[in-house]
Structure formats: C-alpha cells, structure tokens
Amino acid sequence: MVTGTSGCVFCGIVAGRLPSRRILEDEHTVAFLDIRPAAPGHTLVVPREHVRDLWDVSATVHGQVAAMVHRVAGLLATALTPDGINVKHNSGSAAGQDVFHFHTHVVPRWQHDGLDLTWRSPRASPDRLDDVLKRIRRATEPDQALRVSTMNAHPH
Ligand code: 5GP
Ligand code: ZN
User: Fold this and answer.
1) Active site includes 103?
2) Among the atoms of ligand 1, which is closest to the Cα of residue 12?
3) Which of 21, 32, 30, 108 is nearest to 68 (CA)?
4) In this structure, are strands 104-109 and 43-47 parallel, antiparallel, or unpaired?
5) Roughly how many angstroms between the first and final C-alpha of the chain, as a whole number?
6) Contact 63 CB / ligand 1 (< 6 Å)
7) Does the Cβ of 96 fall within 6 Å of ligand 1?
8) Which ranges in 16-141 belong to alpha helices (H)?
9) Gap between the Cα atoms of 145 and 149, Å rounded
10) Where do the domains of the chain lie?
11) What is the second-level CATH architecture of the domain 9-109?
C-alpha cells in the first residue's frame, strides 16, 4: 500500500524539499546520514517510493534497498575502515520504528565502541521452540506441523 507522502520527512528528503547529507543514490533508493547517528557514518537507506514498513514494501523494492545497503557497506568500509557493521531495520512502533517510511540503518562498528545493539536472552526450552515452530509451520503448510513434531522426536 502506498500512502500519502506530503507529511513524510523521508519523502521530503528524497524529493529534495528537505536537506540531507546523501552519500549514494540510484534510480530506486537514496542513502543519507542519520541526523542522530549511533556511530560515525550511520546511514539510512530508503526507497524513493513511499512505503510504510516491511509488510508494505514489495519484494522488488526490498531487494533494491538491500542492494543499496550492500553498496553503502562497501563505501563505509573504504571510507571509515570500521571493524564491523550492523544492519538494522525497525517495522512498527513496537519494534522502535519512529519514521514510517521504510528504511534500513547501516551502522559502522569499532571494537570497544560501547554501542549495545545486542540481546542476551536465555536459551529457550525445546518445548518452547517446538511450539513456536509449529505455530509458524501451521501458517505456511498445515501438514508441516505434524512433520515437525515427528522430526524433533529424534534430535541429533
Ligand atoms: P527508526 O527509529 O524509525 O528506525 O529510525 C528513524 C531514524 O531517522 C532515526 O535514527 C532518526 O535519527 C532519523 N531521522 C529522523 N528524522 C530525520 C531527518 O530529518 N533527517 C535524517 N537524516 N535523519 C532523520
Ligand atoms: Zn515517505
């Protein structure tokens, strides 16, 4: 679903109505520096088309964003020589999305930079993992749910 774009800050940036620090762009996407960088070089990659989130974006446009993320990672590696890179995307306010124009964060990382983007969850019990796997399999192929329970009866 493509929604209205007049109030969208990233549509404003794509159209050039609002300022940004662009580092790369192509026919389908624009990559520009985040104004509140988690690290130097923190870049946002957006499709030119206004789409809201991961459920709204087409596979084609998602692929175009992914291709630009890949280019940006290469450029940042050359320019800033980070030790690593995080690629992060938030869809939905529950996941931390603040700007509702699809975007992917590309964040250069350095050893001991102190940035914490990780989680330290305890290992789940096999029952919990199997339960969620069954729920997911049921949504794809109803038959799969049965096969999962049979497969997991003989784990290696
Ligand atoms: P989200 O939380 O939606 O995944 O991330 C939105 C990001 O957009 C934030 O990191 C925020 O700093 C950035 N941002 C918000 N407004 C602007 C803006 O006007 N210009 C730029 N360059 N970045 C913005
Ligand atoms: Zn937009």
Assistant:
1) yes
2) 19
3) 30
4) antiparallel
5) 44
6) no
7) yes
8) 59-80, 126-140
9) 7
10) 9-109, 121-156
11) 2-Layer Sandwich (3.30)
User: Are the C-beta atoms of 41 and 110 separated by less than 8 Å?
Assistant: no
Identify residue 104 by its one-letter amino acid code: T
Distance 61 CA to ligand 2 centre (A): 14
Distance CA 54, CA 105 (A): 13
pTM of the predicted protein model? 0.90
- Pick from 133, 55, 121: nearest CA to 94: 55
Alpha carbon of 23 to ligand 1 centroid (Å): 15
Bridge-based pairing of strands 22-25 and 29-33 is antiparallel
**The Cα angle at residue 15 between residues 14 and 18, in degrees rounded to 5:** 80
In a structure prediction context, what are the per-residue pLDDT tens digits for the chain, which is 156 residues long?
A: 344 578 999 999 999 999 999 999 999 999 999 999 999 999 999 999 999 999 999 999 999 999 999 999 999 999 999 999 999 999 999 999 999 999 999 999 999 999 999 899 999 999 999 999 999 999 987 665 556 555 655 444
